[in-house]
Write a structure and sequence with these properties.
Elements (H helix, E strand, L loop, with lengths): L2 E5 L2 E4 L4 E8 L6 E8 L6 E7 L4 E4 L7 E6 L4 E6 L8 E9 L12 E2 L3 E6 L1
Parallel strand pairs: 2-11
Antiparallel strand pairs: 1-3, 3-8, 4-5, 4-9, 5-6, 7-8, 9-10, 9-11
Length: 124
Amino acid sequence: QVQLVESGGGSVQAGGSLRLSCAASGYAYITYCLGWFRQAPGKEREGVALIYSGGRNTYYVDSVKGRFTASLDNAKNTLTLQMNGLKPEDTAIYYCAAQPAPCGGWNPDAYTYWGQGTQVTVSS
């Protein structure tokens, strides 16, 4: 059974940084599609970053390009999301997600396994 546990959320001022971690177990990382998603109050869940092929390929939504970096530590089975230059509109609950290939892209409904989420709050 795949298990995902996030940590690292918190509150920062605009322009600050946070690093999210997701401890993963019970899966073969090389054959799984991994992603970071977020959901702000009153909004649909949206994809932030996708990590494919054991971390060799990463993709970002336009709104976070150049500010967020997603990575996978295969030895530690840990996904990370380094978030720099945070903006108030980045405020949301952030989730890591996993899905056996084939990958479902940015569609949250395509992902079977989810972490519990971690709150990120950015004040202006």
